[in-house]
Amino acid sequence: MDRKNILNNREEFSLNRSVYKAMGYSDEDLQRPVIGIANAWSTLVPGHFNLRQVSDYVKQGIYRGGGTAVEFGTIGCCDALGQGHEGMHYILPSRELIAGSIEVMAQAHNLAGLVLLGSCDKIVPGMLMAAARLDIPCIHLPGGPMLGGEVTFHGRKSDMTAIDEGLGALRAGKISRETFEKLEEGYCSSCGSCSFYGTANTMCTLSEALGMALSGGAMTPAVHPDRLRLAQKTGEAICNLVINEITARNIITRDAVENAVRICLATSGSTNAVMHLSAIAYEAELDMNVLETFEAYNKETPVIARVYPACNADMNDLFLAGGVPRIQQNLLPLLHGQAMTVTGRPLSENLNAYVYRYEKNPDCITTLDAPFEKQGGLQIMRGNLAPMTAVTKPGAIDPSARRFTGTALCFDCEEDANRAILSGFIKEGTVIVIRYEGPKGGPGMREMYKSMKYLNGMGLAKTAALITDGRFSGTNNGCFVGHISPEAASGGPLAIVQDGDIIEIDCISGKLELKVSEEEIKQRLKTWVPKKPKFKKGYLSTYARMVSSAAEGAIIG
């Protein structure tokens, strides 16, 4: 059935037209393709706070382009508001609900196309998963990053991460309570996704890299007038996609995912991107292993862009330096320039037509000839502690800590580890092991964000390490390894690590080893007893039963 003409004057769809007319739509409106706007706006999440206004401008663009706009909401959880309590169990699982809810709305109402409005960590991948699953014309528009904070912290404009680093510093006696309270009041200067290069901005960047967002869409600040102009252009662009029948899978191809992997490595993106790109590729039914792509490309993709946590620059600095288009232009010899995009044109044509409004800043974006790092900013890890895989981020680890050998101190949940860190119990040379925090065991694969920030604030980021089957925030720095698969709850070797064991972490070569004999590991695994599920009913109980490993994208297939 032709989705873009379903409501045209056919008698069998008289009821459908009548229902639209009850909301004020005219016959003229219903002669046009009906295009949905999936909007994650709320007054709960700062990253989405501006999306109601942005949506109004998208609607203008849709009408200009010859379509009729209809809008519906989808959930959008804030990782920051989920920190420190049971809520973090729900954050990653919300990705599947977002993808499913958008699929349901688009299919139930036979929409001709979709504009996806969302900015934050799990919302963007959930939306892109829905686009790939539906395979109808779709375009993504982020809401844009917030401005950097008004308070200076450790030589940089403050941001959300300054709060938890500040708490560690406060407990260690390194800052005053007055300074700490100033951070709380002044770290957010506007609405928008967080001002650092965490998972939210990484995924918005990768949406643009995939070709699913217009050039400049990822990094233009939330409060910049160009954000509204981008919204109008996005509305016009979706109409072009619908008219020309360019669907999501025409754009989310193997070449596009490989481009996104390159951009992620070249920008030291969030470790969570590995899992999210795997899930998007799965929904697009691509015959590729995203982890292996990261592994192969890491050796030949240098880091050419940096922002906090890799340096003191924030997202606004990266925007002024040229944003994603400048990064793509400088990396173009390594990209598939012929990859299709939401403009209906290939990437290379978009870059040739892009107009830069600001001067180059080689401190933020450099060239292939003078990279910040010779290898990519993410590393896939393997070893007897990660028989499938694990992930780390050398781009956010001090060079002195990229190879680390230490003594294990084990915790079976994040809360116990955090209490130990804040009480001063962690010493130099410790490898903190936090387990039973994977997709099934958590459930929900919580971020060990606070644990790493507390270590950083207490001055232990270079002298202690943390490994987990949970996740990390894209803002974490220090020696850490996450996404260890198989997870402890599935009987992975992480479950049998004991206090005092020696663990070797090599973020350069990608090795994660428990320095215990193979025979000893086998003996310990024989006596391992699975833990009982933490949730016996509700969504998390269902999620824990159905979710795959982190190495497979933590998908519900």
Describe the protein:
- The protein has 557 residues and is an alpha/beta fold.
- The protein has 3 domains: 32-147 and 190-353, 3-Layer(aba) Sandwich (Rossmann fold), CATH 3.40.50; 152-186, no CATH class; 379-552, Glucose Oxidase, domain 1 (3-Layer(bba) Sandwich).
- It has helices at residues 14-21, 27-30, 51-65, 79-82, 91-108, 123-134, 160-171, 177-186, 199-210, 225-243, 248-251, 254-266, 272-283, 290-298, 315-320, 323-331, 347-353, 414-422, 449-457, 518-527, 539-546; strands spanning 34-39, 68-73, 113-117, 138-141, 152-153, 156-157, 379-383, 386-392, 403-411, 430-434, 465-468, 479-485, 502-506, 511-514.
- An 8-stranded mixed beta sheet has the order 7-8-12-11-10-9-13-14. The protein has a 4-stranded parallel beta sheet with strand order 2-1-3-4, with helices on both faces. Strands 5-6 form a two-stranded antiparallel sheet.
- Strand 1 (34-39), helix 3 and strand 2 form a beta-alpha-beta unit.
- Helix 7 runs antiparallel to helix 8 (177-186).
- The protein is globular and about 75 Å long.
- Its cofactor is Mg(2+); [2Fe-2S] cluster.
- Residues 32-350 form the Dihydroxy-acid/6-phosphogluconate dehydratase N-terminal domain.
- It holds the Pfam family ILV_EDD_C.
- Keywords: 2Fe-2S, Amino-acid biosynthesis, Branched-chain amino acid biosynthesis, Iron, Iron-sulfur, Lyase, Magnesium, Metal-binding.
- Its EC number is 4.2.1.9.
